[in-house]
Every structure is written in C-alpha cells, then in structure tokens.
Amino acid sequence: MYRFTGRITIISFIAVGIFVVALNVNLITRGSDSSEIISSATPHLEDSELKMETMFYDRLDNNMVQCRICFRNCILQEGERGFCRNRENIGGTLYNIVYGKPSAIMVDPIEKEPQFHFLPGSRILCLGSAGCNFRCRFCHNWHLSQRSIEEIGHSGPLFPEDVVNMAIRQNVPTISFTYNEPTSWYEYLYDIAKLAKDEGIRVIFHSNGSMNPEPLRALLPYVDSVTIDLKGFTDEFYEKVSEAKLEPVKQTLEIIREEGVWLEIVNLVVPTLNDDPDDIRRMCEYIRDSLGEYTPLHFTRFFPNYRLTDLPPTPVETLEKARTIARDVGLKYVYIGNVPGHRYNSTFCPHCDEKLVDRYHFSVHGVRVENGRCGTCGESISGIWE
Ligand code: SF4
User: pLDDT per residue over 77-96, tens digit each?
Assistant: First the structure.
C-alpha cells in the first residue's frame, strides 16, 4: 500500500529562530579557489525539535514504516534509522531528521559541480549536510556523507525561506544541493526548490542518481539542472565500490532526460576498477542511445582518498583515452576534470571546433556562446546560457 503523506509544518515557536539566523549569517572569503564559506549562527533549538515528516513512505504493522525515497526502500522498526542515517522512525512516523540543518554552506563557481553548460562563470549557493545512501570507498566528502548529523553538527535551523533570502542577498542566481547526497534530505531540497522557483532563483543538485521515480518526478518541475555521477557501468563495480546498484541510476538518468531537465554526467575514472575501455565504450553508447549525443560527459581524475588509498591517481592518458572513446562513439561534449589547465576543461563547438568556453579548472576566462549558438559558425550549443 503506497501513501503520499501530507506535509507538516514545523511548529510555530521554531519560526522565531528564522530571523535570528538570517541576521547572523557571516560571509568569509576563502582565497584561491574562489569559494566563499557562509557560516550561520549556532543552533537556537534542540536538535530533537527540528524534523520533518518524510514525504514518501508507507506505514506498516506494529509501528514499522517503509521509506520510499530511494532504491533501498528501508523498512524501519520504531527508533531505527535508515541506511542514509537521516530518516528515523519515531513512534510509527518517519521523519527527515536533518531538515533545516545544513552542515556546509558555501558560495562556489558553478564549474565545481561540474555544470559546464549552465550559466558558465556564475556562482552557486551550495548546501550540504550529513548522510548518504551509498558507501563509496573513494568519497571525497566522506567527512560529511559518512557521518550522522550528531557527529558533524550543523548550522541550523535554516528554513527554506532563509536559504532563498540568502541567495537573493548574496546576489547568487542558483542554489545547489551538493557535498552529500541530496536524496537523503529530500524534503529540504523539495521545499527550497519550490520556494526558489517563485522567487526566480534557479536550483540544481548533484546526486548519485538513486532517488525513486515518484519522488524524482515530483521534484523535477522545480529543478533547473542536475549533475549525476555515473560511477561505473557494471553491477559489480557499484556493489563492490559503492554498496549500490547501477540500474536505479540508469532509470534516474532516463527520467531526467524524459522530463526535459538539463543533465550533465560525471564519471570518476578509478584505475583498475572502472577504467576498462570496453566498459567505457558501453557506457558512452548507452548515453548516446538513451540520453542523447549532446549530453555533457565529464571524465574526472581519481586521487587516493578515504578507503581507497592503495591505488594511484588516474593517469591523464587514461582520461584522454576515455575521451577519445566517447568522441568516437559520437558524444559531442566530453570533458576532462580534476586536471587543471587541460585542453578539455574547455568547451568546443562540435561543428567548427572553436573554443566556446575558455576554462582553467573552475575558472572561466571567456564565453563565445551567443544566444545559445557558437559565436563563429552559428551551431546551436546545448545548455542554459542565460
Ligand atoms: S532515503 Fe534513507 S531511509 Fe529512505 S530508503 Fe533511502 S537510505 Fe533508506
């Protein structure tokens, strides 16, 4: 039996905190990579008082519940938390316990997502929290994603209106959910995206692509663009390295394409684990046939990290070979990431090969896309440019 629960509003006395937090936001500039850290005031409420009922779940017998937000569909007894650590069965009701509790708030260049065909050179207000529904052995943000909210702390309460107002005040055109898996605090993303749409602020998110179809389809009308990690192209890789599955990710990619939301794909190439040229070719053929040849694909360089410290960084030649395969297959926009200064940090016209967006790593030094077309030959260039 499937049930879409009604939303609950957070009890009114909490609302007093909104203004206090909003007034106490500080902006700190962090030097060389052009990120700005925004830290909010210390919490004004006990953590246990701030939570939101999960939007998609079933109530089962004996006060058990089944979450329907992601492919894991966790069944939880009273007092238990889901695999992502962010949803808890409290008295037979399933709550998102990190709602309004961001642990990282930054202003970044959009190129960091990466989103290379969406307002190049613009800034994004990034939010992240604790928790993830994957267990990637190479996770670069494991300090956030592989921890509970109690372990890492947070800057909440920060309500959806606070976040949207923060973007407006900082003159940032886009809000991004990133750092940890947005699926694991879905309701927060959903509420902010809806509000942001009304205020003319754009919303993007970077995900492992494992949201169930129903919550995904409910969210996409309020979202402008998505970056999905396609971590490999075998079930074995997903199971062994991420404790996850490939099929839900493919389904997510296809739904995003179907719904007409802008999509970019990242493939982190890890030596010996997912760098088989045949697998890369199959992945590129899948992207071409199921998502379209104009879908940007970013091959990014692995560096030893977290639980994968026994492998070397990806050789640049491996990334270049992967790019050659993708271009041979027919993909039009293929990038090499985590290699600052590489020629294929930049965007080239697929028709005349003119450099259209001149990038060095995350910095944009020039854009020659005019009204969505190549400034030289007039070829239509896929993406959102204004
Ligand atoms: S969102 Fe969390 S609780 Fe829900 S199914 Fe996924 S891992 Fe389980």
Answer: 999 999 999 999 999 999 99
Cα(88) to centroid(ligand 1), Å: 10
What gap in Å lies between CA 320 and CA 317, rounded to an integer? 5
User: How far is it, in rounded angstroms, from Cα 323 to Cα 328?
Assistant: 9
pLDDT band of 34, cuts 50, 70, 90:
low
Q: Is the CB of 85 under 6 A from ligand 1?
A: no
Q: For helices 277-286 and 316-329, give the axis angle rounded to 10 degrees.
A: 40
Among candidate residues 247, 213, 243, the one with its CA nearest the CA of residue 233: 247
366/358 Cα distance (integer angstroms): 5
**What's the CATH code, domain 104-374?**
3.20.20.70
Which has the higher per-residue pLDDT, 330 or 156?
A: 330
Round the average pLDDT of the chain to a whole number and report it. Answer: 89
Q: What does the pLDDT read at residue 35?
A: 53
Atom 5 (ligand 1) nearest CA: 73
* Contact yes or no for 237/273 (Cβ under 8 A): yes
Q: What is the C-alpha to C-alpha distance for residues 35 and 184, in angstroms, rounded to an integer? A: 24
Q: Cα–Cα distances in Å, from 120 out to 63, 113, 252, 366?
A: 49, 11, 25, 9
Contact between 292 and 251 under an 8 Å Cβ cutoff? The reply is no
Q: Is the CB of 129 under 6 A from ligand 1?
A: no
**53, 55, 83: residue to mutate for ligand 1 pocket, most atoms within 8 A of CB:** 83
> Over 50: is that where the pLDDT of 180 sits?
yes
pLDDT of residue 50: 84
Query: In the chain, where are the structural domains located?
Result: 104-374
Is there an atom of ligand 1 within 6 Å of 73 CB? yes
Could you report the per-residue pLDDT of 185-209, keeping only the tens digit for each? 999 999 999 999 999 999 999 999 9
